[in-house]
Amino acid sequence: MTESAFIHRFEPATSAGSAPLLLLHGTGGDENDLLGLGKMISPGSALLSPRGRVLEHGMPRFFRRLAEGVFDEDDVRLRARELGDFVSESRQRYGIAAPVAVGFSNGANIAAALLLLKPDVLAGAILLRAMVPLSDPPKAELGGKPVLLLSGQADPIVPASNSARLAALLSQAGAGVTHKVLPAGHQLSQADVTLARDWIGNIAAEAA
Ligand code: MLT
User: Fold this and answer.
1) Is the C-beta atom of 35 inside 6 A of ligand 1?
2) Is the dihedral of CA 140, 129, 183, 37 positive or negative?
3) How many domains does the chain contain in total?
4) Number of other residues whose CB lies within 10 A of the CB of residue 69
5) CATH code at 146?
6) Residue 68: pLDDT above 50?
7) Alpha-carbon separation of residue 20 from 3, 45, 149, 162, 205 (angstroms)
8) Structural domain of residue 50, as residue ranges?
9) Which of 131, 158, 186, 188 to mutate to test the pocket of ligand 1 (most atoms within 8 A of CB)?
């Protein structure tokens, strides 16, 4: 095991030309949680799905928090570096291109941190119920990377002002952000799946 090893699942691509997905689960999830979602969003993509290495009362997460919505930002930075190293190693090991992250909740928050701290790691990101992960992020250069941010209008964990701030932050850093607010709470809805699938289909069509 290297320093950056994560327990993970990897499923190879079954159709050439679809972007690999980096699947990042929410608090209490694991590496199996989002495989089905990944297949629905982008059938044929390679799937790389790590388990978060931080435990909160036995529940896996991608970084430590001090309270709900209050993050240990030193840990966010450390864990984003670790995850970035894991993705780089996995790309070599499995021979895949830079992935598009698909993160839910805590997984979306670490994906947002990766975009801001290690912009080269991801080709883009689908952020489901994400929040601003760092109060004072570095100036990132996202050079047009595509980001889909899907928020819930009635999300009790992510205030509307917070997701709007994240969209602005990523746009200012140069990402091509699509932000939609759905009639949903923190949990995912069918609309998330449909919008994510259409969005990634458009990205693939533009890249072809
Ligand atoms: C987080 O801690 O990343 C957010 O509060 C979302 C959650 O995991 O509940």
Assistant:
1) no
2) positive
3) 1
4) 13
5) 3.40.50.1820
6) yes
7) 23, 5, 18, 29, 15
8) 3-207
9) 131
